[in-house]
Each structure stands twice: as structure tokens, then as C-alpha cells.
Amino acid sequence: MPDPLLIAPLDTGRPLQKQLQERIVAAILRGVLPPHEPLPATRGLARRLGVSRNTVTLVYERMTEDGYLVSVGRRGFFVDEGFLRNPASLTGRAAPPAEALRQPRGIDMPARMKMHPSRQANITKPADWRRHAYPFVYGQVAIDPISVSRWRESIRQASRNEHLKTWMSDLVDADDPELVDQILRRVLPRRGFKARKEEILVTNGSQNALYLLARLFAGPGVRVGVEEPGYADARNIFSLEGAEIVPLPVDGNGVRPDERLAGCALVHVTPSHQAPTNVTMTMQRRLALLEAAERHDCLILEDDYEHEAQSYRRPPACPQGLRPLRPGDPYRQPVEAGLSRPSPRLPGRPAGGGGGGKGAPPADLSPPLRPRPAGDGDLPRRRPL
Description:
The chain is built from 13 helices and ten strands. It has helices spanning about 15-30, 40-50, 55-65, 80-85, 85-90, 95-100, 110, 145-160, 165-170, 175-190, 205-215, 230-240, 285-295; strands at about 70, 75-80, 200, 225-230, 245-250, 255, 265-270, 300-305, 345, 385. The strands form three sheets. The chain has a six-stranded mixed beta sheet, sandwiched between helices. It has a two-stranded antiparallel ribbon with strand order 1-2. The longest helix has 15 residues, at about 15-30.
């Protein structure tokens, strides 16, 4: 028959597990729980105490871990004879179970963190933005039944059995060849430059592309120019890499490439549809930016955000298309990186080496993203999409 103290009603004002463990420890010390007899079954003890079976089970398991009990398959829980042969151990361990059942000491996670992204200034969006007549909200998708129907039909066609080997195969470090072909033939020519298929890199959205570029080019001690006002996520991504952010003012013609660019290793701009002002950078300002990048030897990360939303009948060419492609030209081989929506492009750093501040883009740009084809001596102009 269980010890009366063990099955006495529990105080609902105190932790139930703590009380039960203290009672079992006291019963062991008094010798009322012999090692050759199992402890009361969890179901029966829980019913007598008026608690859930899980409460009793958790206490038994905790005390087994602490060495008070041993579990025997299909027989139940027994008092560990090792404690009974060593009273000093019993006496010394009588208090810890109660201590162990107290609320665990909280861990100060923020103090251990090396960075605090939540403390950065982020884009905020009201949850009820759809109730506004003109919701000027960033990055939300309009409810368009026609477009959804077209997407549904496209997914249905792509899911047909004859296409399974194409989209279910592991391409390892390659992108979908048909998608790359469409990018080469339909997207890039409209933006004024050419690329080879091995120079295309598809990423999981604009922030993924910016993250990869930040990992490659940014870091502690690196100055990165960003538009002010500008894309908050780009600023935050570069900041998380430890880069020093240099605000660049924006006016009605786009970003102003003044002497603030001096010392910058990278500058992020949105010339086609500036975020958030929607200003389109003029051709004169684009050429001035290229000249400033050459003078200060910095990379230009052109984020081609919403270039299709501007009022031009034909979108202005990207900076690569603004320079003649002839041997020896400092812009003969700019580094490219871009996205479809939003779409960054990296066309600024002069290549080809030589003096006068001209320097080739880093030769290790491609390997961190994708293995380079054997015998490919040209610097890949990667274009994340």
C-alpha cells in the first residue's frame, strides 16, 4: 500500500511536480520505499493525487535521470540500490530534486548575440492595408484572379508526367536551362547587355542576391554607399556584414555621385525606379555615376527595381550598354548582377587592369557562387535573378 504521505492531496498553489518529487525523496530517506518493490504505477498514483498521468511520469523520469530511481522494462520504476548503499550520497542529494524543479534560470539570449537585426530600422506594413482606398504599401501582391488562373494553368502543365524529369532532377549547382535560356533571349537584351549561360545565377529573390553580394564584397572596415532615402533591406544586409554605411543623397535626377563615394568599395543604387521616391535616374546622372565609380575605384550594384514600371517606352540601357565594348576599354567587362523583380545589376567596376585607378574585378567573384567552367578565362558577369 502506498505511503499515506505520498498520496496525500497536493497543494494546488505550488508546482505539482516539485511537491511529488519532494515526497518521493522523503519516502526514500525514511525507507518506506524498498528497492525490491516498484513505485506506485503512474496511472494509479495520478488518480489518487488528482493529477494527470503525465505529471507523475515526468517526475519518475526526472528522478531516474538524477539517479534516484531505475526503470525496469515492463515492471516499472524502482529505488536505485546504489543510493541505499551510500547514505552520504542520499543525504547530499536530498535537496537537489526540489531545486531542479524550480523555474529554470533564464538565459539572456540578447547578451550572447553578436548582432541584433531586430534593432535595425525595418520596413513596417499595416496589417489592414487593404481597407485603404489607395494603399501605398511596399511589396504587396494585388488580388488578380486572372493572373492566378494563368499561374495555376502553368503549374498544371509543368506538373505533367513528361516534365517530371526536368523539374524533379537535382541540377546540383546549375539553374534550370530553359529558364536561363529565356533570361538570355528575353530579359537581358532589353536591358542592353549580353551574357553567356554560365554567367547566369538565379537566386531566391532580391534579398538573397544582395546577401550573396554582401558576403562577397562587404565586411568590417568596408565602406558601402547607399541611397538616402533608399532600400532599407539593402542597408540592413550590408550592416549585418559589418560594413560602414555611407548615405548618398537622392534628388529629382537620382542619386548624387559626389565625393561621398571616395573610399567606398561598393555603392548600391536603384536608378530605374528609385526606392522609395520612384525617381528615374537621368542619363547624365548615370554617366556621372560611372565616371565617379572609375575615379574612386568602386563597384556599382544597380538594383533594377521595377524598371518595367517607369514611363519610358523602352527602358534605359543598363550602364554596361552605355560604354563602347572595344578592346582596352575600361568598361569592356563590367561585373553584372541583377534581378527580375526587384532586380539588382552590378555593372560598375572597371576591368582590364592598368593604372589610373582602373582595376579588374575580383577574380574570386565566381567560385563562391558556383564552380567556374574549366578553361573559362573571362570573369563571369553574374546576374542573380
